[in-house]
Amino acid sequence: MEVEEVESPHEAIFFVLAYLPLQELLLMTQVSKSFRDVVRDDVLVWLNIVVERPLSLRLTNEILIKIASKAHGMLHSLALLNCVKITDEGLLNVVNANPLITKLYVAGCTGLTPDGVVMAVKTLVAKPTSTTLRRVKMSGLYNMKKEHLWTLKSCIPIPQSPPRRKPRFYHKYTSSSYSSINEEDDARPIDVEICPKCKEVKLVFDCPNEAECKGCFDCISRCKVCGRCCNSDMDDDEQGDTICNDIVCLDCWLRLPKCNHCNKPFCPQHADTQLIHPTSKGFICQICITNSLAFAFHRLD
Amino acid sequence: MASSSSSSLSRVVVKSSDNNLFVVNKKVASQSQLLKQCIDNMEEKGTNDVILIPLSNVTSNILTLVLEYCEKHADFADDDNNNQELKQWDHEFLKKFDYATLNSLTMAADYMVTKSLLNLCCQFIADSIKDLTVQQIRQIFDIKNDFTPQEEADIKNENAWAFR
């Protein structure tokens, strides 16, 4: 059997492995033997684990523990986005085995309780390690109380010279993007804060127009396109209907491409996923297609 | 004042693997830790000569691109207010290249220890891999399938939960 020592023409892709979300990383194992072996055995590839759609809904405690064990206790950041099957027990297990975690993102993991996350954070902080936990994202969990927030704040060190609080806009904010784990543009150590309006622990958004206009999405609904406030209770005319039921202000609504049949647009985020082949002639949304088919079948009967 | 300026270089000359010379401003060169280290070492020795840094692993095509990147980032090094503009520029910069160029650029960024460029390239390639199939990845990166059918079935089975 001959051994080929030819250097891969695309060696850079080995660097790229560490930047891939979980599904793409697992896909790479099927490409060739060398990739399978690197992904299987190289700890560096597993230091940042990001699980997002469509794996979020399939990730169970057992799989998470198995995957996290590939980092051999060196796990640096763990981002679980909307992983609803993960429970406090599973998270605590991973945290116990990986004391070096500096970023813990569990936004939308509704199987976790705030108590469980606080427990995990306390466990991390209590370990005598050289690195410290710097960031926690946990928006979307149920029953978050101020007490949880205070405890978390006492656990996470506040930077000596805290960067100026940058405004957070609704239309720019995505908890579920892979790059969010590498980017530091949102300087908050904890993503949730106390909403100035309802005093609940929520994600608080700023308004691109008015500095005073701050609040969680339940208090101030905002346009998905431009982030400005459009409270429907005040003036119903200020927002337009969309297919995805996301809120869009009237100015932005006028500019979006609309379904040829029902004249409703997608918000840009859903347009990206739903409109795979938009043509210059426009599109017909899935709802209208389904309805027309149902109508046709009804006529046939 | 004379003594301090005498031991500090303002420019260096960088030589590519195909023997082309590039005169580089010190601030621009400092974006690469490799070049910065060379400059610092020479400054410690107190040389007045213009120093020549040969890069045996980087062709002039790729070096031009790395230096273009370094120049832009050196311009923005002092103010982070324009972060958004710089990000936009980064994206436009990489968008122009095919995978072979991106590959060489990544390797050059690694060799020249330009961490931000390495980061940028890797993230860019990672983003473009999303939504590709195994076949497409093999095709684009010119990778041979060296699995036996049994091995291929095994590895698919191992991570079956992720690909339902």
What are its keywords?
heterodimer; A: 301 residues; alpha/beta; four-stranded parallel beta sheet; two-stranded antiparallel sheet; 10 helices; 7% strand; globular; B: 164 residues; mainly alpha; Potassium Channel Kv1.1, Chain A; disordered N terminus
Q: How would you explain this protein's 3D organization?
A:
The complex is a heterodimer of chains A (301) and B (164). Chain A is an alpha/beta fold and 301 residues long. Chain A has a domain at 231-301. Chain A is built from ten helices and eight strands. In chain A, strand 2, helix 5 and strand 3 (103-105) form a beta-alpha-beta unit. In chain A, helix 4 packs parallel to helix 5 (88-97) and helix 5 packs parallel to helix 6. The longest helix of chain A has 15 residues, at 286-300. In chain A, 36% of the residues are buried. Residues 1-7 of chain A have low confidence and may be disordered. Chain B is mainly α and 164 residues long. Chain B has helices spanning 2-6, 26-29, 33-45, 60-75, 83-95, 99-111, 115-129, 134-141, 149-158; strands at residues 11-15, 21-25, 52-54. Chain B has a three-stranded mixed β-sheet. In chain B, a hairpin with a 5-residue loop joins strand 1 and strand 2. Chains A and B meet through helix 1, helix 2 and helix 3 of A and helix 6, helix 7, helix 8 and helix 9 of B.
Largest sheet of chain B: 3 strands, mixed
* Strand proportion of chain B: 5-15%
Q: What proportion of the residues of chain A is helical, as a percent range?
A: 25-40%
Strand order of the largest sheet of chain B: 2-1-3
Return residue spans of chain B where pLDDT drops below 50 for at least 5 consecutive residues. Answer: 1-7
What characteristic shape of chain A results from the CA principal axes?
Answer: globular
